[in-house]
Amino acid sequence: MTATRAASWAFHEEDSVRIRGVLLEFLRESSSRTALLVDRAGQMLITVGEPPTFDPTAFASLTAADFSANDQLARLLGESEFGTLFHQGERESLYLADIARRVGLSPSSVHDRVRKLEQTGVIRAYRAEVDPQALGLYVTALVSVMPLDPKQPDDLPDRIEGFSEIEDCLSVAGDENYILKVRTKTTADLEDLLRRLREKAGVHTRTTVVLSIPFESRPVLG
Q1: CB under 8 Å to 22, separation ≥6 — which residues?
Q2: Cβ neighbour number for residue 65 with a 10 Å cutoff
Q3: Residue 220 vs residue 146, higher pLDDT
Q4: Number of Cβ atoms within 10 Å of the Cβ of 190
Q5: Contact 119, 132 (CB under 8 A)
Q6: What does the mean pLDDT of the chain come to?
Q7: Contact at 8 Å (CB) between 165 and 210?
Q8: Which domains can be identified in the chain, with CATH numbers?
Q9: Which of 6, 92, 109, 185 could cross-link to 105 by cystine, CB 3.0-4.6 Å?
C-alpha cells in the first residue's frame, strides 16, 4: 500500500490515527496479519498487525523501487500509470485492488468472494496461458481413438499418461471412445506420436490436423 503522489503534503497525528483505523479494519475484514503503508520515496509510514517476519525498511525501499519501475513501464506503453502490482506466489497469486475498482467492491469483499470460489472448487487453479508456437509446437491435431479389441479394459487415460504431446483427453459418445488434442513440432513428430500411441494403447486412430484456431479456452460464464 502506498501513499498517493503529490507535490507536497503534510502527515499529521490525526491523519495517522485515522489511517491506522482504516488499516486495522482492513486486517479484520481480509483476515490478513500485517499491513504496511509506504510512500513512494520508500519511507515506512505505518505498520499495523503482527510484526512482519521480514525487514520492513528493506521492504519499503523495494516497494518504492517497484512502483517507480512500473511508472516507467506505464509511460513506455502510453499509460498514465499502473496502479496495481501482481506478484505470484505459491499460495496467493492475485492482487485484488484493481478488480475491486472495476466491480465497485472493496478489496476485502473481492478477496472474500474469490476465497469462497476457491474453497467450493469453482476456481480450481491459476495457470499461465502459453503460446504453443513460441515453444516450437506448430502442429495441432485431434486424434480419435478406438480400441483394437472392444473387450479390452477401458484404461486409455492411464496408458497415455506419459505422452507429453497429449494436451487433452476427452471421453466421448459415438464410434470413438476418446478424442485427444495433441501438439507436436512437425508432422513427422505427429506421425511418430501416432505410431507410439497405437503400439502402447492398442488402438485404432483417426487424425484431423488443425489448420487454424479462431479461439480456444474461452472463459466459462455461468
Answers
A1: none
A2: 12
A3: 146
A4: 20
A5: no
A6: 78
A7: no
A8: 13-119 (3.30.450.30), 132-209 (3.30.70.920)
A9: 109
Closest CA to 45 of 17, 70, 85, 65: 17
49-95 pLDDT, tens digit per residue, is: 888 777 888 877 877 777 677 677 777 777 766 665 555 556 544 33
Q: How far apart are CA 130 and CA 216, in angstroms?
A: 12
Q: Which three cell numbers stand for residue 219?
A: 472463459
pLDDT digits (tens, 9 = 90+) for 132-154: 998 999 999 999 999 988 888 88
Helices and strands, counts by H and E, the chain:
6, 6
Q: What angle do CA 108, 109, 110 make, to 5 degrees?
A: 90
C-alpha cell at position 147: 480400441
Separation of alpha carbons 115 and 94, rounded Å: 11
Residue 7's pLDDT is what? 42
Percent of the chain with pLDDT over 90: 28
Whether the pLDDT of residue 110 is over 70: the answer is no
Residue 64 has φ and ψ, to the nearest 5°, of -60, -40
- Asked whether the beta carbons of 175 and 214 are under 8 A apart, the reply is no
Q: How far is CA 18 from the centre of its chain?
A: 35
- State the Cα–Cα distance between residues 116 and 195, nearest whole angstrom: 45
Tell me which amino acid residue 47 is: T
